[in-house]
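[recover] target loaded
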């Protein structure tokens, strides 16, 4: 840390019964009261450098009073230490100035009027000396600028009027740099580093040196976290808008450090915490990966229980939605503090899912309900067309993009957690489930588990709501194990159980058909190969006559025969299902 020494005389100030005096052969002719301390000084050295004291003494001399009056400096900025340093400067006593006391002395010198207007001779007064020290030493060092900025909180108005605060912030923003010995990947992990000995000083004016190498390369985000809210916000804005290209990820890391220090927990929230949270949200970079999704969701949890503006909440939800694939179920359990009685904020999660879908693939549409693409049919009207539809869906499946599949699984797991909320409505559950596109759910096992949990907790819901809840379930995408459990689930509507049984029958029929086709094709190929060996010379002619078309031999009726083996009217299956239907109706 840099420092400056002024004066050459030894310190001759002393204290007698809480009165500060200076040793001299001359009698004291000036009494000044600063705070609770009284100073017995001399007019000559003090009035020659302090314009305010000169004017006050002149006004007192016009009054006819025999007693020596005390000059009261009631509105003096700072403490008595700053005044005493100014007084010692007037006496020529050696004083030491550094980043810790330069602000207080600069404000005191401005108050006393220690400018070049009152100084007689060619030597500069204290104000000019201090400004030179600030410009050439303090503002050239990141560390000194930071320490000086911290001291401005004691005299905020004076520091603002003198421009010290703005100059400190500008120096800090311009001094943020990166250690030249690290590569870019390391810089992203460790953060920007501050350089405290970047410019050599005039050793005559600014004595002292920088700290150790380990101290000079500490991360600047940890230092800035010690600042108050207003100074921190202004400094971060200056860093973001500086000419240096600061990585948004590093700014995000600095915000995380500040939030972890000043936002300890939701339970300890207060009005000050609300201001801190609003400021942190406003400082978040726009870039997607600058702040982890977990940090955004943590802020969103706090915003939901604090008195934070709606726009700030929506900003957090949008930023978190853009990287929803990196979230976990526990992070999505955002508490809800309203009169609905629900434990978690389902609407904000639904908004994040929609934001993620629009960000990843805008053309993807949410899941359509069964009422949109399939007419309602009773279990007696299910015919062969539905079984053929099941066969087609089971035999042809396309994998969704990995991110969409991951988010779909995340939402289904989230539904399983919130289904335990007794105040969660069917509408909230269904609306969130339907935000996931049809093609994103490869398997509906997790969705079925969520529905099962909801039905177990909400056993008294109406029959119509039970049916609406189960319409989002696609029985064709259930695994064999899930289908077995669902077929025995007494809480599911009858139609869902019937559909599950049809799907299982379709799976079995399709598997049998494929096995038959494979066996028939193998036999046909074997007979064809034997015939060609016996006929010998007629091989080319026979090859032309039995040339394959569409992947199978035209001379073999294997596929036709296999397809004919599939029952056109599964009367036995329908009879079995109807009997099951009647028994279930009686049971329900």
């Amino acid at each position: 840390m840099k420092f400056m020494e002024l004066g050459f005389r030894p310190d001759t100030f002393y204290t007698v019964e809480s009165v500060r005096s200076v040793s001299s052969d001359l009698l004291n002719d000036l009494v000044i009261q600063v705070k609770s301390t009284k100073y017995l000084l001399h007019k000559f050295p003090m009035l020659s450098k302090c314009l305010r004291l000169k004017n006050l003494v002149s006004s007192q001399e016009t009054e006819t009073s025999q007693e020596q009056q005390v000059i009261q400096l009631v509105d003096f900025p700072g403490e008595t230490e700053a005044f005493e340093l100014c007084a010692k400067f007037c006496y020529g006593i050696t004083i030491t100035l550094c980043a810790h006391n330069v602000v207080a002395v600069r404000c005191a010198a401005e108050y006393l009027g220690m400018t070049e207007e009152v100084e007689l001779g060619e030597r500069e007064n204290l104000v000019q000396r201090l400004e030179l020290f600030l410009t050439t030493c303090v503002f050239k060092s990141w560390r000194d600028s930071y320490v000086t900025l911290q001291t401005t909180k004691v005299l905020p108005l004076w520091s603002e009027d003198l421009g010290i605060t703005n100059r400190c912030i500008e120096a800090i923003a311009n001094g943020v740099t990166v250690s030249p010995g690290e590569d870019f990947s390391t810089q992203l992990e460790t953060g920007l580093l501050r350089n405290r000995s970047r410019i050599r000083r005039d050793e005559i004016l600014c004595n002292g040196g920088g700290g150790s190498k380990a101290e000079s390369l500490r991360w600047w985000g940890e230092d800035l976290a010690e600042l108050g809210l207003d100074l921190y916000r202004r400094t971060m804005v200056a860093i973001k808008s500086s000419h240096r290209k600061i990585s948004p990820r590093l700014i995000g890391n600095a915000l995380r450090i500040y939030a972890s220090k000043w936002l300890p927990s939701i339970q300890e929230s207060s009005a000050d915490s609300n201001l801190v949270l609003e400021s942190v949200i406003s400082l978040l970079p726009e870039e997607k990966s600058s702040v982890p999704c977990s940090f955004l969701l943590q802020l969103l949890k706090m915003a939901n229980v604090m008195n934070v503006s709606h726009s700030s909440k929506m900003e957090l939800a949008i930023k978190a939605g853009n990287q929803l694939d990196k979230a976990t179920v526990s992070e999505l359990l955002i508490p809800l503090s309203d009169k609905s009685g629900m434990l978690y904020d389902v609407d904000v999660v639904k908004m994040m899912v929609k934001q993620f879908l629009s960000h990843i693939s805008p053309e993807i549409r949410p899941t359509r309900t069964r009422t949109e693409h399939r007419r309602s049919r009773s279990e007696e009207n299910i015919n062969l067309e539905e079984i053929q539809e099941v066969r087609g869906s089971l035999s042809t499946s396309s994998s969704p993009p990995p991110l969409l599949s991951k988010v779909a699984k995340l939402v289904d797991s989230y539904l399983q957690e919130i289904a335990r909320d007794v105040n969660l409505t069917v509408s909230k559950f269904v609306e969130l489930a339907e935000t996931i596109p049809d093609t994103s759910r490869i398997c509906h096992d997790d969705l079925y588990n969520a529905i099962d949990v909801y039905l177990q907790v909400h056993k008294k819901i109406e029959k119509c709501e039970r049916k609406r809840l189960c319409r989002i379930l696609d029985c064709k995408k259930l695994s064999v194990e899930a289908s077995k459990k669902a077929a025995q689930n007494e809480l599911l509507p009858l139609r869902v159980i019937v559909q599950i049984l049809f799907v299982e029958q379709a799976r079995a029929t399709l598997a049998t058909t494929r096995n038959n086709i494979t066996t028939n094709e193998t036999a046909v190929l074997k007979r064809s190969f034997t015939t060609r060996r016996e006929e010998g010379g007629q091989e080319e002619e026979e090859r032309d006559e039995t040339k394959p078309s569409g992947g199978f031999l035209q001379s073999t009726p294997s596929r036709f025969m296999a397809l004919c083996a599939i029952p056109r009217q599964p009367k036995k299956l329908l009879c079995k299902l109807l009997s099951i239907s009647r028994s279930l109706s009686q049971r329900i």
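[recover] notes: The radius of gyration is 41 Å.
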